[in-house]
Amino acid sequence: MLPWVVLGVATSKRTQGLLAAARETGAAVRLVEWREWLADAHALEDRLQQPCRFKIEPPGDDARVHMTLVNIGCKRLGRAPCVPIERGELAHADAWFEGFSVAMHRLGHMLAAMPHVQAVNAPAEILAMTDKLDCQQQLQSRSVPTAPLLGLVRDYEHLVALMNQGDLDRVFLKARYGSSASGVIAFRRNRRGQQQAATTAQLHEDGRLFNVKRMSCYTRHDEVRRVVDLVCAQGAYAEAWLPKPRHGAGHFDLRAVTFGGRVAHRVARLGQRPMTNLHLDSERVDPDRVLAPEDQTALAATAERAASVFPHSNVIGFDLVVRQGQARVLEANAFGDLLPGWLWQGKDTYATAFGDGAMR
C-alpha cells in the first residue's frame, strides 16, 4: 500500500476520521497543515518526493487559513484587505473562492511535475465542484439529470423576475461557493403576495449574516429582500425546487459517495425542513427502507454517471433526489465523504478510501 500525504487541518473531524481509519487499517499517513503549506511551499513539496497518494481536505476549519485565502482573493480582485470575520459569519465568499482558486492552481502546477504522486482528487476538479453553479452546468452538459437551473441571481428583484419568467412559486437560492446548506434559501411565495425565506442564514440587527445550526423563516418583505440581497452579493444562483419523496412524517434526499467512480456508501437524510443536511439534525436512514428497487438502481446509475464527469476525482459525495425510478443530482461535493460511523461492507468512508478499489 502506498503511503498517504494529506493536506488538511489537524483538528477537523475529517482529518481526525481519516487518521483514525489509518490506524485501524495500517495505512501510513503524513499530515501537512494548510497553514504550514501556505507559509512555506516546501513543507508540502518535501513530503511528496516519493511515490504516494495525496489527498486534499478542505481548509475551512482553520479560521486563520480562511482569512488568508480571503485576503489572497481580495488582492486578486483589487480590493482592500478584509478585517477578520466572526465565527459563522457569511462574508467575502467570492474573495475566499478566488483565494482558494489560487491555492488549487498552485497545487495543480506542483502535481504536474510529480507524476509519481497519485492525487485522490485533482485540484482542478475540486475547484470545479466548489463552484456549485459551474459544477451543475458541467453535469447538465454531460446529460446528468439535475434540478433545472435559473442561473446567476444579482439580487431580490432579479430573483423575482426569473421566477416570473419561469412561472415558478418555489425555488432554492444557493450560495455559489457555499457548502453544508450555508447561504441556501428555500424561497416560496403565493398568489396573495405572501412570501417566505427559510434559511440557516440568520440576519443580525447590524445587517450581517451568520450561518447557524437552526432554520430561520423570514416572512416580512424587507427582511426577505435583505437576506436575499446579502447572499446574492457574494455570488448566488437559483434552481427549481424539486419535491422530495416523503417517508413517515418527513421527506428525504440521499447522499451517495463514489470511490473510483463506483457507488459505495449511501444514506437517506430524513427531515421536516426544506434542507435535510445531517448537521441540521436530520435522521440517517438506510436507503433500503425508503427506496424501491428501481429507485436504488437509478441512484447508483446516476451517481456513477455524475462521477464520470470528474474522471480525475476518486472520492465524491453526491446529493440526489430519487423518486419514481428517476434520480437527479442536487450537488457534487469533492469533500463529501464525511459520514462518521456510516458503514458500507463493514468500513467507514475513510477506511474504504484506503482500499484497493478506491482509485480509478
TrEMBL record:
It comes from Acidovorax cavernicola. This is Uncharacterized protein. InterPro entries: STM4014-like (IPR047778).
